[in-house]
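Subject: complex prediction, re-run

Hi both,

The earlier run crashed halfway through, so I resubmitted it with identical inputs.
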Amino acid sequence: MSAGPLVQWSWISSEKGTILSLLVQHVELTAIAIAIGLAISLPLGILAWRARPVRAPLIGFAGVLYVIPSIALLSLVAPLTGFFSITTAEVALVSYTLLILVRNTVAGLDSVPEEVEEAARAMGYSSPQVLFKVQLPLALPSILAGTRVATVTVIGLVNVTALLGQGGLGQLIIQGFTEDFNTPVVVGLVLSVLLAGVADALLVLAERAGIPWLRRASATTR
Amino acid sequence: MAAQGERYNPMNFLSEVAKYLTSRSQWSGLDGIPNLLTNQVEISALAVAAALITGVGAGVLLGHSRRGGFAVLNAANAARAIPSFALITLLGIQPAIVRLPEGGLVATGIAMWALAVPPVLTNAYVGTRDVDADVRSAAISIGMTSAQRFWKVELPLAMPLIMAGARTAAVEVVATATLGAYVGFNDLGSIIFSGLALHDNVETFSGAFTVALLALAVDGLMLLASRTLTPTGIRASTRRRRRRSLLARRHAPGLPG
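This time it finished cleanly. Structure:
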């Protein structure tokens, strides 16, 4: 019995097309999960920040979802959303982003100094204006930091969703196991790590571009 | 009532799950829940213990010497991006491991150790490194040797962060060890995978439910343990320190960091 060499280059070049399309699927599954995660977490984060009594139960619930093992969460959702459906995969993936994104939204909003809010009000800003023009932009670094963590986490978890039929690069891992063949597993692992690195780097760039004052601020404090 | 055919009746489904989980055959023998649960807890405890020995050891030594930290933090972060599912599978098909009588256990154990080290190492390093400069110089000025500072000052002060790292690691490991069943390690994941293979949704759901309960229980227990293991003196001081930094942040001019 042998699983072959760690990397058999001829297999990679003959399977280029499949690998690429699985990589694209991996990116799609991740992007959808992060987009939906943000769309849910931002309003929930604002709510938890404004309404104190909601905060602990909301973050507690997101924490419970976060602790449940991915393969278990997938299987728990599947009877409702269909086994081997894309909805099942996304419901599970989005669940894992909630804790990180809600917590970071609240922390970001919490860290806005009261003086800034008072200054904005003194200038005649209404409550929604203060929120959207002052507080949320100032919370952006924390929200983006959360998005980075959530993205890297989801890229890893997408591999597991392959066990329920929707999994981008995870498909390669399963193929390697069923065929007792190293190369697909190694390709899946390496591409998954690279994808996480690239996504993280892109988000750092987005952070620099979207929050120019952060650079200036750190330059002056230094 | 739910429609006929492919749609589930939730009440029927849940009562079948309850029937499955309470049936006698599930509670005895090698494939019974008690044995599967024991296997999963054992491998998790082993992996976390090994990670604590290696990770905390390396982390506090680096934090104490205050050298090489940047490289270690980056390496630990990069290691976190390795999907455990890929690592378990890769180890699980290596002939050297497959040949062993407990190949599944070895593959799962190594992968779980690799999963547990990064959070443990990072927290131990940061906890030791970030001991207050005033405290450090006070320890030097009363004549403590380097070893004394390490054992009596830095390590105890880093304890809350070290325990937080251990909690993260334990929860992640006990949850992810479920995937060990994929390469033949007989833990609670076996119920899920058997259900998936047989298209038995009741079995899959029952296994998932049990695993979820286990992960939540471990999370709660680790929280309790970290509270009791942190000496009261340090607990008070961290609370004070945290409050001070919160106040400092609130009054700091400029922008959140």
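The mean pLDDT of chain A is 89.

- K.
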